[in-house]
Amino acid sequence: MKPLEGRLAVVTGASRGIGLAASEALAAEGAVVVRLARSLAPGARGPFRDVPCDLADPAAIVRATTTILGEWGTPEIVVQNAGTFTLKPLDATDPAELDASYALNVRAPFLVAQALLPAMRAAGRGIHVTIGSTCDHVALPENGAYTVGKYGVRALHEVLSAEYRGTGVRFSLISPGATDTPLWDPLDPDHRPGFPRRAEMLRAGDVAEAVRFVATRPPHANVDWLRLSPVRRLGTP
Ligand SMILES: NC(=O)c1ccc[n+]([C@@H]2O[C@H](COP(=O)([O-])OP(=O)(O)OC[C@H]3O[C@@H](n4cnc5c(N)ncnc54)[C@H](OP(=O)(O)O)[C@@H]3O)[C@@H](O)[C@H]2O)c1
After folding, report:
1. Per-residue b/e over 189-203, b at no fewer than 16 CB within 10 Å?
2. I want to staple 206 with a disulfide (CB 3.0 to 4.6 A). Which of 175, 178, 202, 221 is the partner?
3. C-beta atoms surrounding 135 within 10 Å
């Protein structure tokens, strides 16, 4: 029997990149995975249950989480992955970009946690995984909007860990460095001084493997924080 056979997982931002790879990794271990993202068509596909949802819209989060709990029950694994990256110096960042970044990177995981964790607490088990970033603990230039959000989700992870201590629900923060996903397409890091080349970045599958690892620990063991970085060779930017 596979380690996650019969378990229900929820992954946000699961239409591409890290979220898609994490969904596939959990499904390969036997989980049924509810995937949330704006561009997914609704329906069941093999081990996947796809629910289109704009996580920047609080009412859409209520609708999606009500569907999850009503149709498939209490999840045992929740991966809060959806995120958006803003690369701009402070004085070029429009307040609307800050708000949009906050809505997806901070408010959405807060509201998803608010909607799903009480049922997990009542069940006395489950694991809540936050996909942070190197930027949840390191300050980099031109990352103001993104970094305040990622420090924010690390804070949320820590608050939830404290608030749910003793309930049987576990909390893991995974903080990847640069990962070669469609997130980088508009930024062209291969031609941007000081940035890692895409070929040197982590792969989405590396982060998915970290998700698989934390999600398959036995109930008495918790991975509080897993930091994952690409290895950069001397002489590369
Ligand atoms: N790539 C990196 O270098 C890197 C490094 C560290 C941490 N991370 C973090 O890893 C996570 C995933 O990043 P990624 O690189 O896989 O990004 P990505 O390739 O751009 O994928 C982002 C995912 O989020 C979904 N999404 C975006 N806006 C959404 C919205 N309003 N509502 C619902 N879903 C939304 C997208 O689906 P739709 O467009 O279909 O909605 C997509 O599935 C993010 O939290 C990011 O901060 C990434």
Report:
1. beeeeebbbeebbbe
2. 202
3. 20
CA of 17 from ligand 1 middle (Å) equals: 7
What b/e readout covers 97-111, taking b as 16+ CB neighbours within 10 angstroms? bbeebbbbbbbbbbb
Query: Looking at ligand 1, which residue's alpha carbon is closest to its atom 1?
Result: 179
Confirm whether 234 is domain-assigned.
no
**The domain that contains 49 carries what CATH number?**
3.40.50.720
Would you place residue 16 in the very low, low, confident or very high pLDDT band (cuts 50, 70, 90)? Answer: very high
Nearest atom, ligand 1, residue 85 CA: 47
The answer to whether residues 207 and 16 touch, using CB atoms and an 8 Å cutoff, is no
Domain encompassing residue 224: 8-228
User: What are 177-233's pLDDT values in tens digits?
Assistant: 999 999 999 999 999 998 999 999 999 999 999 999 999 999 999 999 999 999 976
Residue 80 Cα, ligand 1 centroid: separation in angstroms?
Answer: 10
Give the predicted TM-score (pTM) of the model: 0.98
Pocket test for ligand 1, best of 24, 38, 97 (most atoms within 8 A of CB): 38
14 C-alpha to center of ligand 1: Å? 8
Q: Report yes or no on 119 lying in a domain.
A: yes
Active site residues: 146
Q: What is the pLDDT of residues 53-102, one digit of tens each?
A: 999 999 999 999 999 999 999 999 999 999 999 999 999 999 999 999 99
